Automatic annotation (TrEMBL):
One of its GO terms (biological process) is polysaccharide catabolic process. It comes from Deinococcus metallilatus. InterPro entries: Dockerin_dom_sf (IPR036439), EF_Hand_1_Ca_BS (IPR018247). Residues 1-20 form the signal peptide. SUPFAM superfamilies: Type I dockerin domain. Gene3D superfamilies: Dockerin domain (1.10.1330.10). Keywords: Signal. This is EF-hand domain-containing protein.
Amino acid sequence: MKGRKWRLLALALLLGSAQAATVKLRPQGAELVKAVQDALAAISTKETPVTLDTSGGPILTLGGSGATAVPFSPDVAARTLTVGGERRIEFNPQGPLPLADAVRAALMDELGLKDWTPAAARVRLSGADLNGDGVIDLTDLALLMNNYGKSGATVGDLNQDRKVDDADLKLFSAQYKP
């Protein structure tokens, strides 16, 4: 069986495929929607498009909101907090950074990106960085192969169909660059 797994890997590395990434955020207002879309466009490529899904994720607002809104410190560009059980990222309208830069910095933190580049986004958002070290390498492949053929919520299930199989191997191979 081990020989078959490695032959499948070799085949998958030859085939490769493009993979899209969707980021769930709920920006409030046209200005924030545009800033988020522009930020995501900067890390998107034809091979790995990064798109906005507003059906979930943290709420993004310009300034605080509601009766309990706390004023911003002038040197803070954005803050993350939980209000009524929902995560919020609030941007300081008079902050030290232009809104575009504040959004990019907050999203880098939110998405766990080391750099705001298409390459960093591809690694982090592809799901193939199974150990979360910012690199898609043979350690990640070992984690996937260790679970190859298993079902359930398992490390290596890149397409989230609750099993680790050839489809996951193909997705991994599209992201792995030796």
